[in-house]
Every structure is written in structure tokens, then in C-alpha cells.
Amino acid sequence: MDLHAELDRLNTVPDLPEWVAGTVQKLLDKARQDAATIKAANLKIQALTLELAHHRRIRFGHKNEALSPEQRELFQETWNTDLAALEAETERQAEALQPKDRPQRPRAGRQALPEHLPRIEHRHEPESCTCGQCGKDLIKIGEDVSEQLDVEPARFFVHRHIRPQYACRACETVSAAPIPPAVIDGGMAAVGLYVWVIIGKYLDHLPLYRLEQIAARDQVMLSRSTLAEWVGRVGVALQPLADRLTTLLLERTVLHADETPVAQLDPGQGKTKRAYLWAYRSNVLETGPPIVVFDYQTSRAGRHAQNFLSEWQGHLMVDDYSGYKALFTQGVAELGCLAHARRKFFDLNEAQANPIAQEALHRIAALYAVEAQGRDMDVDARSQLRQEHAQPLLQSMHDWMLKTRVNVANGGGTAKAIDYSLKRWVALSRYATDGRLPIDNNPVENTIRPIALGKKNWLFTGSERAGKRAAAIQSLLATAKLNGLDPSAWLRDTLEALPTCLNSQIDSLLPLRAEPLHQVSS
Are 285 and 379 spatial neighbours (Cβ–Cβ below 8 Å)? Predict the structure, then answer.
């Protein structure tokens, strides 16, 4: 049908056919554009969905064990950020294709905000108290309450201490209230500022120059030299607490030990050299408040562990580092880390599917299942559980390894993984003989990990003295966290009480819970 001819027959207006034809053509062009837009959006959604699934597999899949714990910790923030961005992009593309009046997808439930935080109420009343339909008065039938978490950046303010002076005309004397004792006599900073600097440097791992920049944004000039002086003096004040923490730790009969390298500035050479932060942690299966102590040393030599544990006797959970071996000839019983043994088989199977490694992983998983069952038991019940279930599994695993090793060629990865466990079998299986003994060294590794990650920020320690000061302060802050205390609040209370605290009362300032704890995890 000729559209122009038909329009000429129906209408006498000369321009109408051209106008209608143009309008129809525009509608057709718009339809083609919309179809192309929808197709592009669908393709974009498909691509984002595939990328989102890939990121989720990396984030949550079992293959993330191929990364070290430190690497997983570093990349977790990036993974979570990318996942959120991909979900937001996918939702935005999908919303562009939906009618505007379509109800929004309900959001998943979220965790309740902490009850201890102060609440600032904002009441949102309607513009009118009368019905918009009939004009009658509205009646309140309930409230819809939602909460949002907010934060104020560090707020600097000044304490002004006014001490009136009073004179006696009779005896010509002047009296005034004494100056309150302070952790740094005559210092310009209040306790809160010291806490802000110490927490920022040692818990949040911010170098002093960054704290200086943060203060400068509020036009508060705190030079690095001043901040450094405060850190040094506060460190000296806290050292007796760290020493007492060490004494209490060495009263325990089961300990974990590990070490991590740190860089120390070597001014004479114009570069850094390697030092080590040794970590000693109380056993998570014993009663009593948990304790961790860091010991900074300039090398990884075994003598440092021997010096720290010179008169200590008990069970020591370590990896296979040779620096601890001398201790096991001096009355210290060795506990082997089953997680390290498992790692050998896991790495072997990740490189290439390996039936022997898979069997070993299956057997080790059964041992950890027994531990999960006994996690909340007391020592006697856990001992009985291990005797009935773990010891037979260990014996079966040992027999299987001996039998399997005969048929495995020397020098290969499988042989090395089996030999690692067989060589240390006595230490690896010793935990099953006593309900107090841990199965692996994960608790101390979890404790030392924040410092291992934080050193990416501060890069190196300036001197051996600085390293030892950091170790002492880190010991106190990490122990506070293990005991469920707020390190910042604990430090504030301690610095306020420290100037007037007697040596005989120093235990009252330690970051330990008063009641005994049965620690089962960290």
C-alpha cells in the first residue's frame, strides 16, 4: 500500500502526509535505537555476571588456599571492593531496562548496629497532619525506624587547667592545688593525644609523618620530632608492664612460638638489614587470660629463643625451624604443627592432582573434625575424645605413610611431603596424648599476622631500640585485643593511672581480664 497516496485520499491538508511519514520514521528509528540499547545492556549484564561469578570463585573458592594467609589478607579488601562494584554495575544496568514504577528489589538483612554506641534521633514528621485524600486528621499508628552508622574524624580540643593561688596574710604563704601527675611531666599533650599517637603508630601502623599530616588538616602543628619524643617516653613508661607480661607468660606450661622478619635501618650502609620479631603466645586450650609477647632481635639465630626461654620448661608448639631444636635437648617437649604438615600435601596437590596428597588431606581433615568436636570440652573430656578417636586415626595415618613411602621414588615432591611428616611424627602426634595440647601453631600465626601486614606501611624500624620499644607496646596492645578489651580504652586508663601506681599494684594495669577464660579460638 502506498502510504502517501492513502494519506492524500483521506486528507486535504497538503503537509499532513509528510508530517505523518516523518513521525512514523522517527518512531521506527527510536525503536531500533531502543532495541540496540537493550541488546547492549543485556550483553553488558551478561559480561558483568560472568566477571562477578569469576571474582566470587576467587574470593570464596577453595583455590584461594594457593595464596599465603598474608596474601589473602592483602587481597581480600580488593576482592570485596570489586564484588560490590560489579554488583552495583549489574543492578544499574538491570534497572535501566525496568519500568520506573517497578518496586525496588528488597535488600538482604544486615547486622544490627552496636547497642553501646550513642544514638542521635532525627524525627521526620509529614508536612501536614491531615489526610491528603479526605482532609481529616491523621492518627499515629506506629513508627518506621532505620539506623545509619556515622563517624566523626579525630577532634582536637584543649584542656585548660586553672589553679587558683591563695595567700595567707598572717604567715605570708601561698597555697594552690597540686599539679595532677602525668605520664610525661610538663608535656603539652593530654592522655588522649598520647593514646591517639600510640594507637595510630602501633595498632593502625601509621608512620608519624601521616599522623602529623592528619593533625595539620585541623591546623594543629605537631612536628614529627615532638611525636617521636612522646612515643619514646610513653614506651619507657609502659616497659615495666611489658616485662611483667613476659613473666606471667613464662609461668604457663604450654606455649606457641613463631617469628617474622622485619627490616631495620642500617645507617652505616645506607640501607636496611633484616631483623626478626619473635612471638610467644599462651596456649588457647588452657584456662586463664591469653597473653602474647613479642621479642625483637637483630637476627633469626636460635640463641634468641634459648635466651627468652632460658629457664622455662613445658610443651612448645613450633614449626620445623632449626633454631628451636636446641631447646628440645634441654627439657622442653616439642609439639609439631599439623597445619604445616598439611600445607606440604596441599601444595603438592595444587601443583598437579595427586592421589597420595589427596588421601593425606582427607586423613588430616578427619583429625581436625575430632578437634572441632572437642573444642568446647574441658581438658579431661578432650583427652578422652582424642584417645578414643584421634589416636587411632593418627596410628592409621602413620602406618599408611610408612607403607606408601616404600613405593615412592626419592627426591620427588611426594617423597618430601611424606618425609616431612614421618621425620616429625612424634612431635606431630604428641598433642593427642593430652587434652591441654594444641594441634597446630595457627593461634600465634594469627596474632603475628597484623604486624606482618602492617610493616608494609612503616617499611622498617629505625634502630634496635625502636624495634624493642615497638615489641613491648605491641605485646600490650595485642594482649588487650586477645582479652576482648578495647586497646585504646585500656591504654587511656593505664596512662592515667600509671604515674601514681605502686610497683606492687602493677598487675592491676595489665591488659588482662580479671576472670579466668577458657580460650578456644583466636
Answer: yes
Cell of 124: 521526620
pTM (2 decimals)? 0.76
Name the E strands within 55-175. 166-168, 173-175
Q: Which of 349, 521, 499, 346 is nearest to 439 (CA)?
A: 521
Domain ranges of the chain: 3-62+76-96, 241-509
Q: How buried is 385 (Cβ within 10 angstroms: 0-12 exposed, 13-18 middle, 19+ buried)?
A: middle
What does the buried/exposed string (b/e) look like for 5-15 if buried means 16 or more CB atoms within 10 Å of the residue's CB? eebeeeeeeee
- Asked whether the beta carbons of 80 and 463 are under 8 A apart, the reply is no
Q: For each of the chain's 522 residues, which pLDDT tens digit applies?
A: 565 666 565 555 566 667 667 777 777 777 777 777 777 777 666 666 666 665 555 555 544 444 555 445 544 555 565 556 656 666 666 666 665 555 554 444 567 888 888 888 888 888 888 887 887 888 888 888 888 788 777 889 898 888 888 888 888 888 888 888 888 888 888 999 999 999 999 998 888 889 999 999 989 998 888 898 899 999 999 999 999 999 999 999 999 999 998 888 776 666 778 889 999 999 989 888 999 999 999 999 999 999 999 989 999 999 988 889 999 998 899 999 999 999 999 988 888 888 999 999 999 999 999 999 998 899 999 999 999 999 999 999 999 999 999 988 888 888 999 999 999 999 999 999 999 999 999 999 999 888 776 666 655 677 788 889 999 999 999 999 999 999 999 999 999 999 988 888 999 999 998 654 334 333
DSSP calls for 233-267: HHHHHHHHHHHHHHHHHTT-SEEEEEEEEEEEEET
